[in-house]
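Morning!

This is the sequence you dropped in the shared folder:
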Amino acid sequence: MTVSKFIADPRRVRRLVAFVKPRRSDHVLDVGTGMLASAFASRVQSVVALSWETPRRRSDNVTLVPADPHELLFPEDSFDIVVCGPSFHHLTAPRIVVTRMALVTRPGGRVVVEDIIAAEQSVRARYQNRLERLRDRSHPGYLSLSQMIAYFEEAGLKVRSIQVHDLPREFNEWLLGGRSSPARIEHIRRLMVGAVEADLSGLQIRPVDDTILFTQQIASIVAEKPA
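The structure's back. C-alpha cells below.
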C-alpha cells in the first residue's frame, strides 16, 4: 500500500509525541497503523502496537499484536497512554473505538487522537468528505473537532489539551493511496476548481501551474481518564 508523505512524515510524529509528553515509566498502546510505535518507544517503558503496518524500525520494547481496533481485547486499565494517529478516520465506528480506548486506559492515564478534521460548517464538511470518497471509496468520513470532543466526553474522558494545525496538501500527493480512475481524478479536479470562487470546500484551494494546492486541518486531542 502506498503511504502518503503526510502519514509518514517523521516531523508530524515527533510533534505529536512531544505534545503528549510521555513519561519513561509509561506503557503505551498504539491503536493506529503502528507508525507511532517507534517514536514513543524511545521515550517510554513499553509499546504495544496493533499491526496494521509493521514499523520500518522496531525497538526491543515494541510488541506487535494483530488485533481489531474496534475490539481492543486487552484487560481494562492496562495502559498509561492509548493513542491513534491519522488512521482514525478510517475506522468504521470511531465512537466505539474511543470507548474501547478509554476502557483499556488506566485511571489518570491519557487517550490521544490525532486526525484530519472536517469543517464545523456542515456544507463544507460534506464537500470535503465528498472529495475524499471520490479519491478513495473506503473513506468513511472525517469528523469535525466538535464531534471528536463529544466522543471523548461520552466515553467519560476529560479533554485536557487540543492543538490544531494547518496541513498544506498538493493534489498529486493527496491522491497517493487512493483508488481513483483517471476519469474520476479529472472529476475531482473539476470539483476543486469549481469550488474556488465561493470557497465551498473551506480548503483554501489554489490552482497553481499544473497542480492544485489546498489546506486541510489536523487536530491533536489529549484527554485524561479520571482517577
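Headline: The radius of gyration is 18 Å.

More detail when I'm at my desk.
O.
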